[in-house]
Specification:
Cohesin_Scc3/SA; STAG; STAG domain-containing protein; two-stranded antiparallel ribbon; chromatin binding; 2 strands
Length: 1215
């Protein structure tokens, strides 16, 4: 098979240089997975017979495998013409236009071909190293051709050339490395030869020949390949080719530093670090990492380090591509190991453990481990634990924790969990050294450790136990939570408990005055296993632990961190399956806590009541005493609430006390904030009481029905009192928004639990004022209106700041561009003629001086003009600053808690809608939130709700969607939005986003035609609507999403027709659209003629024209003037451009005087009785179904498929 490649002595044609018709090309043989070594041998044999034709075969291989037209390189041109130049043989090849089509070298069908191709060139150079490589024809011809092909327009040729040159360089480096080893051997042999013998002469001759070979190959690598071919490819327009050249460069530097390790080569790696393509930057970072991993050449890389270390730090800290940032952090880790970076810069990279990305956080954790822990850990492991009597291991371990604590204090967000989680893989042995923690806690008094240091160590200890037992938190947004329930490692829990059984109660009581330390210790105790107390026969220690927790709970008045104490008590007494030996005493202790808290609450309440009647106390003392009593009352109520959520308490006076407290009437002056706390805690405790009464006593089954007696006085009384109280809070005008939101959430949550039981009782006998639909709806709307007002101000502020930054950015770029062109113009100026006389020269010199002065003046003027601005820009900046100042004057401040409030409010509203507590039309307000850039959680909640709970009919679905659009349009006309025209335009674009989202996510009943009809009716009933053109653009956009069947139904359905008055303001827009629809209607009503696919005559169109068109007889196209609606929604449609001026001519005062737009719920029956007016229908050009894509996280005004960019021309190479 391979004999056909080369010529033989028996072939006359090949001797004369004529090609053999049956001869196979090199590519065809490589594709068939032929033996590459035999192919190379046959080519070398043919080269000795006809070198010119063999080189021609190699070039044909390059052209074929790169997808170029090999016919452009004819044999006679190859022999007759020069290689380069305008009339050279390479001209026709390199001038081939670029193509996006794949070529054999990168096609998936030939996965093996890339390796075959590289192996061919490797073996070719190896086998030619002793003969052909030095004949001055082989390398000369190939390098000249590769130089021309490397500069070709065709990307495949450039790619193929780079692959060949990199492979040749790799092979030559391998050969040179071996030759240098041979040179060393020859040099040692020459040194051992003391006499001038024939062997010494032979060794010197071998030394000279080997040196010449090395120099020749180095010349080929440096002068012929790198400088003439590869150097230009570092700036190639194709990023894959740039990556292909950068990758091997670092390997060449390491393998052959005598030639490659210099600034002329390493500068290309530094330049690639600034490449705007991510793949190139990633390749460059990995290449630089290879250089610094070797300790041999660090001193020679000093210049590179000083030049590019800041760029490396910048990539690690702020590159937007995660993979690049991770690789750069690893590079920083390697460089920091050799002390090549400053400590402050390394510390800045270490703080990336707080980033919300698991890969970056873990990479930063590896860097932290290396900087603060690794060396000490090596020293600890070198000390035998059995022989460490002096406690050296303990001291070194403490130094590790001290270093981690110091670093944690310097962090922006000193959360121990983030840090320990990032260090866990490498620092597992450090953080699970339970013996160290025991000794550390035992030596607290002797070591005189400060409270802040103790607090940090305890936080690290708690997090270490939490992660070790498997109770991990999912802190990264890109990390998916497991669907299975997390299982706690009981063995580790037993081990931790056994270490701290006797020590923990003592430590708790010692630090009971420090509430922060106590909270960390109590949270740590939640992972203890009660079984360990039984096995070790230390039940008394368990009782001491509970007593210590009780004392701490009753001692401190602070309301924060109470949940963790309640959770710890619950885990110790319930989830751990407390043995019967401890259960009764433990529960008795919990009930004792309840009794004490109930007594203190009653006492505080009575004292407040008595103070109102005490006239002997001075006002200042009275106010101080009232404040102290209210703080204590709220603290005790908060404690009751925290443990009441987890344990059931029954007391005859409990519900009566709570019902008196939630009224907030003590007849003394109390701060509003503290009074609202009292109401909230008392209401929450009462809700807990209802829940426990319902589930503890009556065994309610919410799924299959509720087992409740027909009439239970106690349960109905509790619910009656609670409902009446919630009703009063929700309907009272003076209720603050915070308390209103709390009441709305609490009543909804309680009612959701109680609803199954409510249907089984005789509740209709009682006149219970349940806050049903109207009050709850008004409450939710008022709360959401307040949050929307804040969101609009926040959006406006961010929008104005972006505009201001854009003006500054444009000003700066304009100044840079002017200075650049000024310097360019100055550099191209010609000099004076040297042949002039001395006098003329002197005159010319004076003129030159004047010219230089004038140029300086002109440059100074350019600089001033750069600083100066046009009147329009100044006016725009002043207006933006005016609006920003107006927001500040209105006391607008960013509220970080607003997002959480909106999330909770939306969740409660959707639960209320689902359960029927509020009308379904409240969903309008929920859907409107899509346009206000909600949080990711809110967006997921709304999406899940509309998908799992569709509306019952298309009529209700269409009404909800249309009203959402109408109300948001009205919001865009409010003063806070319309005061800035650019911001109003952005808000209208958000309306388009809202329409896009609802069309793709909220429609379940094929109601899009009905939605369009109702939108048109809204325009019809509001002829003086301000900014109605923006609402019509939403209609146009919805029309692009109609299916073919929906288009036909809309055309033939008389119910879609809407009657407009001739004087209607927006009639021209609708009328122009209707004219196009009319032509489309005539087209669809005309039956197609001809035969069907089987040859039978085509039948007439049925009543529902779903089969009007036919392949052999397509319908006539619409008239040329009836063009479909434009795809780009931001531009005015062609059929609406004629009336643009009519709308723009309206005065701005018209929008202020117009009445509120009328919302249309259903079709008006009076339309049929109106006199006949121009009937307007609506439809738009057909677009593919599901045209709008899901892009919920972006604040874009268009759908992603409204604009169809041309396909990106990008080559996928294989390496």
């Amino acid at each position: 098979m391979t004999k056909n490649i080369t010529t033989t002595n028996n072939s006359k044609n090949t001797k004369k240089g004529k090609p053999d018709a049956d001869k196979k090309t090199l590519l065809e043989i490589l594709k068939k997975k032929g033996n590459v070594e035999s192919i190379v041998d046959d080519w070398i044999y043919g080269y000795h017979l006809n070198a010119e034709m063999s080189i021609y075969e190699l070039l044909i291989l390059v052209l074929e495998i790169s997808g170029a037209d090999k016919e452009k390189l004819k044999e006679e041109n190859f022999k007759r013409l020069d290689i380069g130049g305008n009339k050279g043989a390479a001209k026709a090849v390199t001038d081939q236009p670029d193509s996006t089509e794949s070529y054999p070298l990168v096609q998936k069908i030939f996965k093996y071909l890339f390796n075959q191709f590289q192996e061919f060139w490797r073996l070719l150079i190896i086998k030619c190293q002793t003969s052909i490589l030095y004949d001055q024809y082989f390398i000369e011809m190939l390098m000249q051709w590769f130089k021309e092909l490397g500069d070709s327009h065709l990307r495949g040729l450039r790619h193929c050339t780079v692959v060949i040159c990199t492979q040749i360089t790799n092979t030559l480096i391998t050969i040179c490395t071996q030759l240098k080893k041979d040179l060393n051997i020859i040099s040692r042999q020459l040194t051992s030869e003391t006499q001038n013998t024939v062997r010494q002469a032979q060794l010197k001759d071998n030394q000279n020949q080997t040196t010449k070979q090395v120099k020749l190959m180095e010349n080929i690598m440096e002068k012929r390949i790198f400088q003439k071919i590869l150097e230009d490819r570092f700036d190639d327009s194709l990023p894959e080719i740039r990556s292909l050249v950068i990758g091997p460069l670092a390997q060449w530097i390491l393998l052959y530093p005598s030639l490659m390790l210099n600034a002329d080569h390493t500068k290309y790696l530094g330049r690639a670090l600034n490449d705007w393509i991510a793949d190139v930057r990633l390749t460059a970072v990995r290449a630089v990492s290879l250089l610094y991993e070797s300790d041999t050449f660090l001193s020679q890389l000093d210049m590179f380090t000083q030049t590019f270390r800041h760029r490396i730090e910048e990539i690690a800290y702020s590159d937007k591509v995660v993979a690049i940032s991770v690789e750069a952090i690893r590079l920083v880790q390697v460089m920091a190991k050799h002390d090549l970076l400053e400590d402050a810069d390394v510390l800045k990279i270490c703080k990336l453990y707080q980033i919300d990305n698991q890969e970056i956080s873990m990479s930063a954790g590896d860097l932290i481990y290396q900087q603060f822990l690794e060396n000490t850990e090596i020293s600890i492991q070198a000390i035998p634990q059995k022989t460490d009597k002096s406690g050296q291991r303990q001291q070194l371990r403490y130094s590790q924790f001290q270093a981690i604590g110091d670093f944690l204090e310097k962090s922006n967000i000193p959360v121990a969990y983030y840090l320990i989680n990032s260090l866990w893989d490498k620092g597992y042995q450090i953080f699970t050294d339970w013996g160290f923690y025991v000794k550390y806690l035992q030596e607290l008094e002797s070591n005189d450790i400060q409270d802040n240091q103790l607090l940090i160590i305890l936080r690290i200890f708690k997090v270490s136990v939490q992660i070790a037992v498997g109770d991990r938190l999912w802190v990264y947004s890109d990390q998916k939570e497991p669907t299975d329930k997390m299982v706690i490692d009981k063995d580790i829990s037993m081990e931790v408990t056994s270490h701290f059984i006797s020590l923990f109660p003592e430590i708790l009581l010692r630090y009971k005055s420090n509430f922060s330390v106590c909270v960390e210790l109590i949270e740590l105790a939640s992972y203890f296993k009660v079984d360990s107390y039984i096995q070790s026969r230390q039940q008394n220690k368990f009782k001491e632990l509970l007593e210590a927790i009780k004392e701490i709970l009753l001692l401190h008045p602070w309301e924060s961190q109470l949940t963790c104490i309640g959770q710890t008590l619950y885990k110790l007494l319930q989830t751990s399956k407390t043995p019967t030996q401890l259960e009764s005493e433990s529960m008795a202790m919990v009930h004792e806590i309840f009794k004490i808290l109930l007594k203190t609450v009653k006492s505080s309440s009575n004292q407040l009541t008595s103070l109102s009647n005490d006239t002997e106390i001075i006002n200042e003392e009275k106010e101080k005493k009232v404040s102290e009593l209210v703080i204590k009352l709220n603290s005790d109520l908060a404690k009751l609430d925290s443990i009441g959520k987890l344990f059931h308490f029954d007391d005859e006076e409990y519900d009566g006390l709570l019902s008196s407290l939630w009224k907030g009437k003590f007849n003394v002056v109390i701060e509003k904030e503290e009074l609202e706390k009292t109401i909230r805690y008392a209401s929450s405790c009462y809700s807990n009481l209802i829940t426990w009464t319902l589930y503890q006593e009556y065994n309610v089954q919410t799924n299959d029905g509720t087992v409740v007696p027909p009439l239970n006085d106690k349960l109905l009384k509790l619910f009656y009192m609670f409902s009446e109280h919630m009703y009063s809070l929700i309907t009272t005008p003076d209720t603050s928004p915070q308390l209103l939101l709390f009441s709305f959430k609490l009543f909804t949550d309680t009612r959701l639990l109680f609803s199954p039981a409510l249907d089984q009782t005789a509740l209709h006998f009682y006149d219970i004022p349940l806050p049903m639909q109207t009050p709850l709806k008004d409450c939710a709307k008022s709360l959401l209106k307040r949050e929307n007002a804040y969101n609009i101000d926040l959006l406006k502020q961010n929008f104005l700041k972006e505009l201001l930054e854009d003006i500054e950015r444009k000003k700066h770029s304009k100044a840079v561009r002017r200075r650049f062109f000024s310097k360019k113009k100055k550099s191209t100026k010609t000099t004076t003629d040297e042949s002039e006389t001395d006098k003329n020269t002197t005159d010319a010199g004076e003129t030159a001086n004047d010219t230089s002065r004038s140029e300086k003046d002109s440059e100074h003027n350019i600089s001033d003009s750069d600083v100066s601005e046009s009147e329009g820009t100044k006016k725009a900046r002043d207006l933006i600053r005016r609006d920003l100042n107006a927001l500040k004057e209105n006391n607008f401040q960013e509220d970080p808690q607003s997002e959480g409030r909106v999330d909770d409010l939306l969740l409660t509203m959707m639960q209320s809608i689902q359960s029927g507590f509020v009308p379904t039309r409240l969903l309008i307000e929920v859907l409107k939130q899509i346009a206000y850039s909600p949080s990711k959680r809110s967006l997921e909640l709304i999406k899940e709700f509309v998908q799992q709970h569709p509306l019952p009919s298309g009529e209700s679905e269409s009404s909800i969607i249309v009203k959402a659009l109408v109300r948001f349009h009205s919001q865009c006309l409010e003063k806070e939005v319309s005061s800035n025209s650019l911001f109003q335009k952005q808000m209208f674009s958000r309306m388009n986003t809202l329409a896009s989202w609802m069309i793709t996510k909220a429609i379940h009943h094929d109601s899009l035609p009905l939605i369009i009809k109702k939108c048109i009716r809204f325009i019809q009933h509001n002829p003086k609507l301000s900014k109605g053109r923006e609402f019509i653009s939403v209609i146009e956009f919805m029309c692009t999403n109609l299916t073919t069947q929906q288009e036909i139904e809309m055309i033939l359905d008389d119910r879609v027709q809407v009657v407009f008055d001739k004087s209607h303001k927006y009639l021209p827009f609708i009328d122009k659209l209707y004219k196009y629809i009319e032509s489309r209607e005539n087209e669809l009503k005309t039956p197609s003629k001809g035969k069907s696919k089987k040859g039978a005559p085509t039948k007439k169109a049925p009543a529902k024209p779903t089969t009007i068109t036919s392949k052999k007889a397509p319908p006539k196209a619409p008239p040329a003037k009836k063009k479909p609606m434009a795809r780009k929604r931001r531009r005015t449609s062609k059929w609406a451009s004629s009336s643009e001026e009519e709308e723009s001519s309206e005065s701005e005062s018209e929008s202020e005087t117009e009445s509120e737009p009328e919302e249309i719920d259903t079709d008006s029956e009076n339309d049929k009785q109106q006199p006949k007016q121009p009937i307007v229908n609506i439809k738009a050009t057909k677009s593919p179904k599901n045209q709008i894509t899901d892009d919920n996280d972006k604040e874009s005004s268009e759908s992603s498929e409204d604009f169809e960019p041309s396909p990106i021309k990008k080559l996928k190479t294989r390496r």
